[in-house]
């Protein structure tokens, strides 16, 4: 007789562990989760944007080389474009899911 699960997540985790072949690792043992990966990417993006702002401020007061300011601002711009592109892809994927027939 099967044991009732209290949540869908617990059922999924149990099914994932039962489907492992000998020598395989569980998802928790594999490493970083997708959520952790997204969190780290967001933190790195924020750090890059802050570095660009800081270099801009240093450039305004004359404490930074112009090349360093341009490089930092360019890195921040590329990071912002990447974040916007990822956001657009997520929204598009969500809209596609909503259009799927049930």
TrEMBL record:
It holds the Pfam family FliE. It comes from the Bacteria. Keywords: Bacterial flagellum, Cell projection, Cilium, Flagellum. Its main location: other. It is found in: Bacterial flagellum basal body. The keyword Amino-acid biosynthesis does not apply. Belongs to the FliE family. This is Flagellar hook-basal body complex protein FliE. It comes from Rhodocista pekingensis. The lineage of its organism: Bacteria, Pseudomonadati, Pseudomonadota, Alphaproteobacteria, Rhodospirillales.
């Amino acid at each position: 007789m099967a044991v009732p699960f209290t949540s869908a997540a617990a059922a999924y985790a149990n099914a994932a562990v039962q489907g492992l072949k000998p020598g395989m690792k569980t998802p928790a043992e594999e490493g970083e989760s997708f959520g952790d990966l997204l969190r780290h990417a967001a933190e790195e993006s924020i750090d890059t944007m802050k570095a660009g702002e800081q270099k801009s401020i240093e450039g305004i007061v004359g404490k930074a080389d112009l090349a360093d300011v341009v490089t930092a601002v360019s890195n921040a711009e590329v990071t912002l474009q990447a974040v916007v592109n990822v956001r657009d892809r997520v929204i598009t994927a969500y809209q596609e899911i909503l259009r799927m027939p049930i």
